[in-house]
Records
---
Amino acid sequence: MKSLEYFNHLEDLDSESKYLAHKAKEAAAHAYAPYSKFCVGAALILDDGTIVSGANQENAAYPLCMCAERVTLYATASQHPEKKIVKLAVVAHKKNHKDLSSATCCGSCRQVLLEFETRQNKAIELIMLGPDKKWIKAPSAASILPLSFSKESLDN
């Protein structure tokens, strides 16, 4: 399996990845984050070139919040069910700050991404800004979720 790649600057990524990161940053402007002030955006590209984006949505009842990645994935599943996801970028910033903050997919989003990979029988490349401020390119959700739970786990 391909390993993670690290890049010091956004400009070091390929043009498609840079474009998706910028689309994710635009999406973060639509985050509803009155509690955490942590605005997250995600953007993905489908196999036909369609771009879908989304932002995190908070709720006073915290368990009801939804991460940007899942907002984007579920919108894609309902609007473009026959298309495959090629790549997803996620970015974040704190409210009223234009500098990006580290934002890697949470465990729940990794699990949902893995399910999407299984559904489409194709890996989804991921672009994220790591805690060390380096850009990460992961070849798949499976590569960032070792020992994952899948439908095969239910067959035991």
---
Amino acid sequence: MRITAANRGPDPAELHLLPTLWFRNDWATWIAESNRAAEKPNLRQIAAAAGTSAVAATHSVVGDFVLSCEGEVPLLFTDNTTNHERLFPGQKNESPYVKDGINDCVVQGNQAAVNPEKQGTKVAAHYRVTIAPASRRPGGCA
């Protein structure tokens, strides 16, 4: 994927670009057993070539893939599970790292909202860029 961000305004603009990869949640306990996946898939950070960041994606049906991102950018990992504690007070979350954890990390600065073990079922590469007025900046993941 290739992302190009453009600043058409008169002032420099700071942007947080978050290309995101996730597995559809078909492993949760609330899914009927007859439709539930036998195994939970996994995304995890792996060693990458200089100047890149990489994620290994493992799924029992789809197979194994690698996502490589330009630049040594932070990779923010959570699980693609609903934040039940936020939506339904009194209910517990299935994971301490819920799907809106990436937002909580970027917007609120809550580093505890993303998995420090660099694994999960949802990941975003966190590109933080400042774009000059009337210019563009390309980047991406493959």
